[in-house]
Amino acid sequence: VDNSELLSAARLFDTRSIGRILSLVENRTDDGRTVMRELFGDGGNGYSTGITGPPGSGKSTLTSVLVPHVLQDAARVGIVAVDPSSPFSGGAILGDRIRMTNHAGDDRVFIRSVANRGSLGGISNTTPAIVAALDGLGFPEVLIETVGIGQSEFEIATTADTTIVVLSPGWGDAIQVSKAGFLEVADIFVVNKADREGTHGAVADLLAMLELGTGAGWEIPVIATEATRGDGADEVWDSVKKHRMFLESSGAMHMRRRKQAAAQLAAAVRQTIDASVDYERDATDVVSAIADRVIDPWTAAERILEAQ
Amino acid sequence: VDNSELLSAARLFDTRSIGRILSLVENRTDDGRTVMRELFGDGGNGYSTGITGPPGSGKSTLTSVLVPHVLQDAARVGIVAVDPSSPFSGGAILGDRIRMTNHAGDDRVFIRSVANRGSLGGISNTTPAIVAALDGLGFPEVLIETVGIGQSEFEIATTADTTIVVLSPGWGDAIQVSKAGFLEVADIFVVNKADREGTHGAVADLLAMLELGTGAGWEIPVIATEATRGDGADEVWDSVKKHRMFLESSGAMHMRRRKQAAAQLAAAVRQTIDASVDYERDATDVVSAIADRVIDPWTAAERILEAQ
């Protein structure tokens, strides 16, 4: 099967063909880059929603129960699960993944797990390309689920059109939320596991904190959910749609898409450099000089970049 | 206080001065870069041990109970705690951090928490520079504690001389360990929380898996510990010393330091590019062309790099 046949089949939403197209994109073969270029040109019409938050807050479950709501508005939905934490978190996450397979028989739902293990640059390296490829293939909606550790919540915010931050009531107080950077990326807050004690307080805390912020025309909602029962999922999806309408009517969408383009370009530059240079092999003398403390890495980097 | 005074005081291990030096390095001010260059030239004599593993395995506690053993061999120890997970993980980690403050009154122990939130490039951006600075200031031993999520365990393996992977018996089976990439980075395995059921099985599993691997002359030990009581910490530190002796006598240390130099150079190149280019501001036309789907990010990146 050549790539144009594969692409045609993927455009008809043949699951195996989509999977193979995404693998080409992910592995960054020459074929993958060709395919990616074509798909990127076709894209721009889909909408993407990021779902992030600390481990154990129930992101996978919420993603799963959002799906039927998404499918009331869209013919298809792609789910991109960025998976660095799943081998680490044991039972709970595995349970969530199994719940995801509820959608396994539904050919309107395409699920892709992205493992970034071992790659430099984290989530930014593959996920935006996978999301762009699904968009280019004609998926009207893509949900991106990623654990909010370190920097990943910032990366998702430059990939997704709407970012949902999912917390559990036991997770922490307003100061923790602020310290973790969630305040900077959230378009929508969800306090999941609403059956647990402390939900009311957590919601009130978040609302109080949000009042302190300077809104840019969008009032960030705080929604209590009990995702294992599906409670609140309708309200979450309604908020995504309202946020989309806000972005589109206010002109903010245009700005957001520019920010995404800039982030994609920055990621592509980093990728291209990482892929093209093996310093240990290509810059033997410089590496030796650093190892011998004759030059420091920062001065060496500046000289390399000046010399280009 | 100018920087040479600050450096002199830090070289005499004045805690506040060390802290201010590290902040200069971390914030990458011009002063920080100057200081870093000087410290890098002074370094190369210290030894660094990375302690990684999944959340909740007891890395902080193990780090803490290793300290008295380290201090039997070295006059001082620096602890670098890479902290992306602490705001997320709630009580357990906070408890561990409090236990760390057991060393707060001991001026032979310097503790630095590195938050990488919001920075691009994850752990690789600041941690190697902080470790190099402590080395340059004259710390004979540095312990680096970082959660093994996504790629961070790979980054620690290119920063530390010896890498300890800490697991808990309930964490998972051999397949999970292998999938998570721990097998590729571990010089020493620790199964912590040895009071729990499953320790014996976990140790046996790991040993069986390690037998399958092709050893490069170093037999990776698997040590059961109960870090909260300090049990096994002596054996862990003994293994670190044995591994160091192996690296030094076999010539592997030279190779490892070269790998570290190459990784530092790659990180410095990425940092320099990230710091120097704001694509949204500097490449307005290209960003617009990407946002309008006239060009894809990968082709744009290649053209930018070719044009340099």
Q: Give the oligomeric state.
A: homodimer
Instruction: Give the CA-CA distance, first to last residue of chain A.
Output: 40 Å
| CA radius of gyration of chain A | 21 Å
Using a beta-carbon cutoff below 8 angstroms, give the protein chain pair with the largest interface and the number of residues from each chain: A-B, 78 and 78 residues
Strand content of chain A: 5-15%
The biggest beta sheet of chain A is recorded as: 7 strands, parallel
Structural class of chain A: alpha/beta
Helical content of chain A stands at 55-70%
Shape of chain A: globular
Strand order of the largest sheet of chain A: 3-2-4-1-5-6-7
Number of helices of chain A: 16
Tally of strands of chain A: 7
Order of helices and strands of chain A: HHHEHEHHEHEHEHHEHEHHHHH
As residue ranges, the low-confidence spans of chain A are 84-99, 117-122
Gist of the model:
Chain A has 308 residues and is an alpha/beta fold. Chain A has helices at residues 3-11, 15-27, 30-42, 59-73, 86-89, 91-100, 127-137, 152-157, 174-179, 182-185, 199-212, 233-250, 252-276, 279-282, 284-291, 297-307, and strands at residues 47-52, 77-82, 109-114, 141-145, 162-167, 188-191, 222-224. The first copy, chain A, has a seven-stranded parallel β-sheet with strand order 3-2-4-1-5-6-7, sandwiched between helices.
Report on the architecture of this protein:
The structure is a homodimer of 308-residue chains. Chain A is α/β, with parallel strands linked by helices and 308 residues long. Chain A is 56% helix and 12% strand. The first copy, chain A, has 16 helices and 7 strands. Chain A has helices spanning 3-11, 15-27, 30-42, 59-73, 86-89, 91-100, 127-137, 152-157, 174-179, 182-185, 199-212, 233-250, 252-276, 279-282, 284-291, 297-307; strands spanning 47-52, 77-82, 109-114, 141-145, 162-167, 188-191, 222-224. The first copy, chain A, has a 7-stranded parallel beta sheet, sandwiched between helices. In chain A, strand 6, helix 11 and strand 7 form a beta-alpha-beta unit. In chain A, helix 3 (30-42) packs across helix 7 (127-137) and helix 12 packs across helix 13 (252-276).
